[in-house]
Design goal:
mainly alpha
Length: about 190
């Protein structure tokens, strides 16, 4: 079961993380790898505490760790080496919001719309930024190869439940998450 992907929230989260990395990380740039891992760690924290995903994205296990699939597709599309489909209005907004100066460095062209992110979303993202901002590629890679990564299915999909468990979700949160996912599936269908 997958929740509905929220493009606007994903864009707001990407812009928020990019601005924070540029301001607070030692290299003062928004590295694509670190940005996607921050989103994973933020989602892991948010799922474990609140039983819902920040963006509704799903995670796949790639060689260097979990990746939010649709957000990655969205960013690859901007970079010119991927495919992402969304309404024309959103695609225009996307191209006006982000660019790549080099293939692995995101340059935000505008500030995030914080109205698209809840207070709990921002707290989880800030916590993940604090945890990862000073780590190098190898350190982030090791941390992201967690139990959720190890539990990926044969198609490399990582379940929301695995991500929540890796974040420390208790049985009540896991039960709530499964109900939330069922409702999301019903609403999307």
């Amino acid at each position: 079961m997958l929740p509905k992907f929220k493009e606007e929230k994903s864009l707001a989260a990407v812009l928020y993380i990019a601005h924070e990395l540029i301001e607070k990380s030692p290299e003062h740039r928004a590295d694509l790898y670190k940005l996607l891992k921050i989103l994973y760690f933020a989602d892991k924290k948010h799922l474990a505490k609140y039983g819902r995903s920040i963006t509704g994205d799903f995670y796949v296990a790639m060689k260097d760790g979990p990746v939010p699939s649709r957000t990655y597709d969205m960013l690859k599309h901007i970079r010119g080496d991927g495919c992402f489909c969304a309404p024309v209005e959103f695609m225009n907004k996307l191209s006006q919001s982000i660019e790549f100066k080099i293939p692995i460095s995101i340059t935000p062209k505008k500030r995030p719309n914080l109205d698209d992110l809840s207070r709990s979303d921002i707290i989880a993202i800030d916590s993940a930024i604090t945890e990862l901002k000073n780590l190098d590629f190898g350190q982030v890679r090791r941390l992201s190869h967690d139990t959720a990564f190890e539990e990926a299915d044969e198609s490399n999909n990582i379940s929301m439940e695995s991500v929540a468990r890796a974040g420390g979700a208790n049985d009540n949160i896991l039960a709530y998450l499964n109900i939330w996912l069922e409702n999301q599936t019903f609403l999307v269908a």
